[in-house]
Amino acid sequence: MAQLGGQPVLILPEGTQRVVGRDAQRVNILVAKAVANAVKSTLGPKGMDKMLVDDLGDIVITNDGATILEEMNVEHPAAKMMVEIAKTQDKEVGDGTTTAVVIAGELLTKAEELLDKKIHPTVIIKGYRMAADKAVELLDDIAMEIKHDDDEMMEKLAITSMTGKGVEEARKKLADIVVKAVKQVAEKDGHKIVIDTDYIKIEKKQGGDLEDTELINGIIIDKERVHPGMPRIVKDAKIALINAPIEVKETETDAEIRITSPDQLQAFLDQEEKMLKEMVDKIKESGANVVFCQKGIDDLAQHFLAKAGILAVRRVKKSDMEKLAKATGATIVTSIKDLSEKDLGFAGKVEEKKISGENMIFVENCKDPKAVTILIRGGTEHVVDEAERALNDAIGVVSSVMEDGKAVAGGGSPEVALALRLRDYAKTVGGREQLAIEAFANALEIIPTTLAESAGMDPIDTLVELRAKQEKEKNPHLGIDVFSGKIADMKKNSVLEPMRVKKQAIASASEAAEMILRIDDIIAATSKKSGGESGGGMPGGMGGMGGGEFD
Hints:
It is built from 16 helices and 23 strands. The chain is of the alpha+beta class. The protein has 3 domains: 17-145 and 409-524, GroEL-like equatorial domain (GROEL, domain 1, Orthogonal Bundle), CATH 1.10.560; 147-214 and 375-404, TCP-1-like chaperonin intermediate domain (GROEL, domain 2); 219-368, 3-Layer(bba) Sandwich (GroEL). α1 packs antiparallel against α4 (97-116), α3 packs across α4 and α5 (121-142) packs across α12 (413-429).
């Protein structure tokens, strides 16, 4: 609202609420801190789990940061920004979501202290950016080289990422499966290794326990044979991948066929049968004995395929067709007429198996498959879902280290090492930015502090001891061993994390903190539902996080 000669002039619609300057920053920082606190207790191997119940009563039990934030249904814009950090972290590296969100929350907490000292947000933002760039640069010095074919180290990385994720009892076996799967789909591009984790398919089936989880050197399709007369097992399978219907097509244009006598009808049906038989004969001629069809297969065609001893599966997903092509070496054809022997793929065995009462097609023993499947088993739906989340994290971790060849020690050691070096760097910068860089260094130490807290250790004493030992011994690998409750060399203890996870977490957290600090004005329209009768300080959905955590 503006004043013109004492007369109020309305600029924004009635009911619009506006928060300006320091108040806007306080609200946003408060919201971001609340989001960070929601996931903070899940950090580390001794972290706690969260039970999330949606409005339909579906339950998710997890300590995976990305999953918690996704399921939490936050409404405040600043909270949504924090959720975006987790999503970015998850997409880019597959792990470290909680770390990124917790660091972002702490950066904003420290920024609030600086704002109270009348330091301008742009100065804080500049200092944070300098600190983030320096931290990413320093990580390279702290990191250790890991060879892509060092299976033992890769397994240790996978075990670290799965520790505390509810799959503890089977983590050794699962780590072995993950390393084999990632190595199988890895491809060389010059001197670089490129890994597309989309080619590691994860299938979940309740039943058995986690130890029954297995790696299939091929693909599992959650479908069944289209006809009971088809063979259940095909050895030395020659596989045709067809992206065309094995049916008589309807005409492109509207056409009407007039039949005036039974003979004509019979001739019409005979012609249809002949066309379907020709399609099946063409498939048979190519030498194929297994067919995966992306479209439909006519009932009569199913009969002919069964008579020819060909195992056929219909309506296979496009993504599964691509994985089958990668695994078997087959070419996906869009016309049955063009199908020839050179388009076929190979698998040692294609078999229909019953898993937990459902039929699935196993395409196994492929020669050098560039797509594989991990079949997860577990006692309950929640165990299987949590195992899937743990495996996804482990796959992300192993593939990023194979591609980069660099890892850092865990247990909060890189954060303390960076904090010590950033404080020295701050002294060389001087000015008010120095305070922001020091605040950034202090914020990074929230990771070891939280790890100590979740392990039942005294967070302040532990942090002081860890800082002193790292400085005295000049060893950046010293961190918190949450199992013994002592400071230990995490490299010797085989607690390793990918450097990429840490880099991404620091970059994402600082970018989000900078963006939130830049906001000095929140203009919120009244939501139509509430009709302007909002009870809190912000209208509509601006008040809080789902259940109004900080109204």
